[in-house]
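Researcher: Structure for this, please.
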Amino acid sequence: MGNQPKDGSSTSSLHNSMLQDVFGSDFVTKSVLCSYKRSFDGFVLELTEEEARKMAGMSGVVSVFPNEKRNLHTTRSWDFMGFSEQVERAASESDVIIGVLDTGIWPESESFNDKGLGPPPSKWKGICQTENNFTCNNKIIGAQYYRSNGLFGSDDIISPRDSGGHGTHTASTAAGGLVNRANLFGLGLGTARGGVQSARIAVYKICWFDGCYDADILAAFDDAIADGVDIISLSVGTRIPRDYFNDSIAIGAFHAMRNGVLTVNSAGNEGPNRATITNFSPWSLSVAASTIDRKFFTKVKIGNNMIYEGVSINTFDLKNEMYPIIHGGNAPNSTGNFTWASSRFCGQNSLDPNLVKGKIVLCDMLGNGREPFLAGAVGAVMQDQEAKDLAYLFPLPASYLNLVDGSKIFVYINSTSNPTATILRSNEGNDAMAPYVASFSSRGPNPITPDILKPDLSAPGVDILAAWSLVSPVSQIKGDNRFVPFNIISGTSMSCPHVSAAAAYIKSFHPTWSPAAIKSALMTTSNGYDY
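Model: Predicted structure, token format:
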């Protein structure tokens, strides 16, 4: 995956020549699935292991690697960072273009209103694919989608439109406009805004129902660089570290850097174990996730009037009505060969709907709430020893408790013939310890080049409110009928666009600065904290 040919030859003829050298007359049977020719040189085709080894040994070939799948890494945050609405703005902020490689975007969101913005900068060379009623404006100045294998899921929208919500969330965090009274059913109420509200957004949809594939990531990099973006924001990664020459994100970021474009990456969500970071190339900026001073708490009240406080984002209102509560171990799906020992965790298909319907279920492990929800439960109380530094969204009323409080509820359930409970709506509280690195945030050291420290810095990535796709449920679980314009989620995916915006802000004042200069400015500038 190297530079473009310097002898004037076309990339297509070069690719065909390489195929002929490897396969002889059989090269006509090899179909190039995708070519990269705008910003760097490369192509995608189907090869056997032996053919791949043969091609890797050819002169001029930098690397040959499989087209593997990558995963997505999800108002108060900007103020908490000290980046108020009143900060000084450069007149050229509207000339800065952030390329967002993600799940697409929901263009009708109020966060992407182009009121007050003029036409796109003259340097812009991109396009807007308008399939399925998608339109661009002077905020979203370009949008493309990529799917090299041509396979789409039933919920995929074959256009740059976002069906998952993730890309809309990251794009609005970076460059969304001001939206007053943004909230999630009253939670997180405030003014939603991106860091650089006048900057333009270029959308490159690379992620679909089954993830984000290397071939599409590279195609998006190829276009974004040539289109004229200034910053690339990419909240995607693998769970296993890759060598630089076999990592599509590292390769794309390298060519972006050579063309004066800084790539900002999410560090990954595999923490807190060491060496779990998966985006760590020296030429990109890797972002960990840290907390802000806002937390969400959800109380559980049981029949003996004891109240226990857990964490979650519960927008449901049970109106203080008490419901029967049952331990998951006492509701095994026996027809599926589940027993007390397995159903107590509320795993997939482990619960008997006849036993949990209309009840609150106590589960002995943190999950996404899908199984109690599908089994007809009214709510779920989960007990586990995982960290509680972020609040989860569930498709039903739920709260996540520590093992001490969870065990007290378990004892109560077994001490009475008619145990009852209710789950209250969430309330907001202050986290005086913030900021600190979130438990899920992937850690260093750099697994490939330990001498280069990674991540580079951290930014808010916990309980972040931002714009959302109107066709994606709040909990992202089918059957959840809450569809909202703003949602609260967590991840290094959320911290990444904060830094993308900060990089764009610097670029607006210093348009000639290199990616290294912008990166250095961000890493060596801070306010002091007294701990």
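Researcher: Any notable elements?
Model: The CA atoms of residues 40 and 383 lie 50 Å apart. The two ends are 47 Å apart (CA to CA).
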